[in-house]
Amino acid sequence: MQKVSDWTIHRLSSYHRLLSEFANEGKEYISSHELAQRAGATPAQVRRDLSCFGTFGTKGKGYLVADLISKITSILGIDRDWRVALVGAGRLGSALFSYKEFRKRNFHIVAVFDSDRHKVGKHWADVQIDHPDDMKSIVRQRKVDIGVIAVPADTAQSVANAMVDAGIKAILNFAHRKLFVPDGVTLRNVNMAMELETLSYVMTKNRTRR
């Protein structure tokens, strides 16, 4: 299989959500033009993205919605359950834990950790908040696949180190700090401040053109 860019995966995830909308609307087949129009892409881009993973669709009929949903679900790996450990039981951690879309996409938070002794032992739904000192045993016991970091920047690297030591191979980082992980561990960063700065740049640039 050819190397696939992150942007292609992002668009594939978007197509998956849009296809579910088409299915809910009772659409059996859709064209690349219809999918592109709703995704804000071009038909050529849709076809190019899908071609990275094989041959899809029928000439003259388009894509069978149910079939394409099934295939993209498999490509994205969300045809199975993923067990997630969340570190940071603050406001951001609470919002992430409560985000229903994760569960819909088969990402289940099965462990929560926080170093605040006043939070340890409390429950979020059916998940107890534990201390990071117990991370290794809990991660292994609950067979965690993915770690999510929602702690202040100054402690993020130590949390990442603990996750790696516990055997976690994929980490999503919300802390505003560049983290370092060894080869074999996948790290993704979410920097909301940077995204807002990108928007402010575009808005400022647009104002200067007026």
From TrEMBL:
Signal peptide: none annotated. Pfam families: CoA_binding (PF02629), Put_DNA-bind_N (PF06971). Keywords: Cytoplasm, DNA-binding, NAD, Repressor, Transcription, Transcription regulation. It comes from candidate division TA06 bacterium DG_24. Homodimer. GO terms for biological process: negative regulation of DNA-templated transcription; response to redox state. This is Redox-sensing transcriptional repressor Rex. Modulates transcription in response to changes in cellular NADH/NAD(+) redox state. Belongs to the transcriptional regulatory Rex family. Residues 77-178 form the CoA-binding domain. It is found in: Cytoplasm. Its main location: cytoplasm.
